[in-house]
Each structure stands twice: as C-alpha cells, then as structure tokens.
Amino acid sequence: MYQDAIRANERVAMNKFAAFVSLGLVAGSAFAAPITETISFSLSGFVDILGTAPPPDPLVTGSFTLTYDPTLTYDNDTTDITVHYLTGVTVDSALGFTYQNGFLEFGGIANDADLVFSNTNDIVVAFNVTNPADPKFIPCSTPGYTCGKYTGSVLVDAAGYTVIGSNTGWFYGVPESTVSTVPEPAPLVLFAFGLGAVGLVRAVRKG
Questions:
Q1: Enclosing H/E stretch for 19
Q2: Are 17 and 171 in contact (CB under 8 A)?
Q3: Which of 37, 47, 126, 154 gets the most CB atoms within 10 Å of its CB?
Q4: Closest listed residue to residue 76, CA positions, set 112, 50, 48, 46
C-alpha cells in the first residue's frame, strides 16, 4: 500500500510536469512569434524601366534590422526597423517597411515603402521572406508588382530607385544583385522554460 501511494504521487508529479511542458511550449511559441533579423543587400546591373538612360549610380547597398510578427500586417512601419547604412542613393523621406503574407518591401515612406515615383529621390526593395532565413528578391513577374516595361519579366527584380530630375528614372536591380540575412538570437523565454523544466524534474526525483 505504501508503494501504491508512492506510485500515485509519482503519477501526479509526472502529470503536472506534462501539463507544465505543454503550457511552456504554448507560451514559448506565443512569445517566439516575432522575428528579428538583419538583412543586407547589394543591387547592381540596373536597367531603366521606362527608357534607356543609364543609372546615376551603378551600385546600391544597404543593411537594416527589423522585428516583425509574420502573422501580422505592417504599413510604412518606421519604429520596428533600424537602418544601418544605405549607399548609392538619396532618399528624401524616412525609411520604413511594409509587410504582408511573406512579402516585405523596404523604402522611403513618402510614397509608401512599397512604391517609387519618377522625379523623386526614393528607393524600394522587395523581398520574399516566406522563409525568413533565406530572403529572396521578388522578380517583376510576380503578380501585383509593376516594373514599367519590365512588368512580367523574370529577368528584372522589383528593387531599385528613382531620382529627382529624371522623369524616366525608374531603375530596378536585376538578378546580379545579392541579399543576405543574419537571424537574431531567439527569445529567452524558451531558455527560461528550460530551466523551469529542469528544476521540476529535479523536484520530482528528489521527492
């Protein structure tokens, strides 16, 4: 009977542990939903999407870190992004991002982060971040993206800039461009949960 009581106590303890693990995983997934990553890009091989004018600068580079929840929608967000550098182009408005359903656009927010207009100093770089660890440029063949005479083309990416004084100056990068990402550390909530689980296991064994 004493052994049965011990077994019953062990079952109760293990049931509590299982419940704690389930709760911890749910809480962990909730806290781990936001993604923080640094994206760096280099754009070259520009083409004039309205005419044949050469680009004012043949190389544009940039890097930024942003935090976003992939289940939400963001529109011209400037608070969840830190721009580390942007070279080769002038942008006259604050830089931000727009995000929806795995599509991320980075650019000046005066005309919206996902748009550029001729005769303005602006930039837009569109990324497919369906896999956050492997962001890719979005080609102009993607439905919903307009790239002048290159709309529908798989050879030109929806990433480029415009400049004041040029009515035909919509320039977009081609697949010569590169993009890379550095994921930030995962939330510490999972680490804290791990410590709690270890502590509970030790308590069960000790009891």
A1: helix 2-32
A2: no
A3: 126
A4: 112
